[in-house]
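Q: Sequence in, structure out?
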Amino acid sequence: RSKLIQMDRISVAVKSVGRNQLSKEDRRVFGQLAKSMDYFHSHFRSMWNSLADACKPDAPAIDSALSARLVATGMRFCTQLEFHHGIEESVLYPKLSVKMSAFLPGDVTLLAQHKTIHQGLEELSAYLRQLSPSNSSHSNSVLVSKDQLKAIMDRFGETLWNHMDAEVEALSAEEMHRYWTREEMRQIMHF
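A: Exactly. Output:
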């Protein structure tokens, strides 16, 4: 059945598809993108949790070896997430925005969240770069501060986690089935 939804002054007929109306095969085909995205997000969550765990009050004191590992993990996290968002913004989102308003440049959620996350990543990577053993601007080893690292992460952590959840939901089998055909899904998956 269809219901009429008013979107930006354009009436769009949207199929109302319940979770149990998708066949197992449809769930596989239309859920591929969400499954792939969740895989990447699990990796980012794991790295984030490693950093956050080190900031807990009951975590071991940060010595030079742990500090170096945290700097390396944090820099990998920043670089990989920036790369991931770059692909989304230049390849995936433009394709999806043809039919899905959640991926339009003016959308207030996903792309706006990218901006907030990007600002946090810039601040985090700047902090970590100054602590890097390869940074020649300091002669003595400077250790990661639990309080400083936690404060930086707290400024964008909630947005990051909400974004990862919202993005996977927007790419769910049910959502993708509303907008795309099986053939279009195959094309999207081979961008």
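Residues 1-19 have pLDDT under 50 and may be disordered.
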